[in-house]
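User: Can you predict the 3D structure for this chain?
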Amino acid sequence: MWLEIHLQIPSTQAEAVEAVLERVGALSVTLLDAYDDPVLEPAPGTRPLWPHVIAVGLFAAETDPLDLLIALESELAPEVMAAARFARVDDRDWTRAWMDGYRPMRFGRRLWVVPSGHPDPDQADAVLLRLDPGLAFGSGTHPTTALCLSWLDGLDWNGESLLDFGAGSGILAIAGLKLGAGSAVAIDNDPQALVACADNARRNGVVEHLQILDSAAGVPPCCDRLVANILLSPLLSLAPQLAAAVRPDGEAVFSGLLAEQEGEFCRRYTEWFDDLRVEHSGDWIAVRGRRRSA
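Assistant: Here is the predicted structure, written as structure tokens:
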């Protein structure tokens, strides 16, 4: 048996609150999405977090909740403490219990994301991507990731090169390789995402074909296909570099965009891309296009 405390906080306070919880004896601290918002790649140099998070501190069973409240009241804002709640949790495999809520998911016609412990789908030509749900780096459950995965599945692959900008877990780069890309580059600005990407590449047997780079290294030129599932602001500011990364007549898909941002995005990218087409999923969109020939 363990004691948990749940604190809802702005993401800007995440590191400070995490440090406070550890200082008062938390055995672990987990950051969860407060409002089911996606975690997408922000502008370089910023930390990718939800606007609001729930910080969950795990304490030994003998921890007294009142003593813990007293210790935290001097460190945290009154409005945070007013909404604090406690829970007693059983001693069990929480990672396994959490993942049991996920099932294999299909994207497009034959691409499947299969979590640990689940049987393979009964489809002769299924392409399997083995990936467990992640809190921050992408597992296919968000509409923008799903739109990009479906786009990848719908392409004919004959050894083309793929660039995944804002790679997170590496799900899109790895999916491309499993579908038939000859090589892929995955770029992210979060060191933890780069580690997750490398782990997932090993698990899926594509390490030899995947190059993983920090975004500080810049955007390498001339891939056949590009996928960038980030946010509008970095998509706009990085437009020249992303466009230059795609060879003439190459293909690209951009997501992390709200439907209301379609016009602003398309006005910017028509400078380099033809035949822009928009796919919708709820409030979210993905825009695909073809790099204009020189």
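Residues 191-203 form the longest helix (13 residues). The chain has a mean pLDDT of 86.
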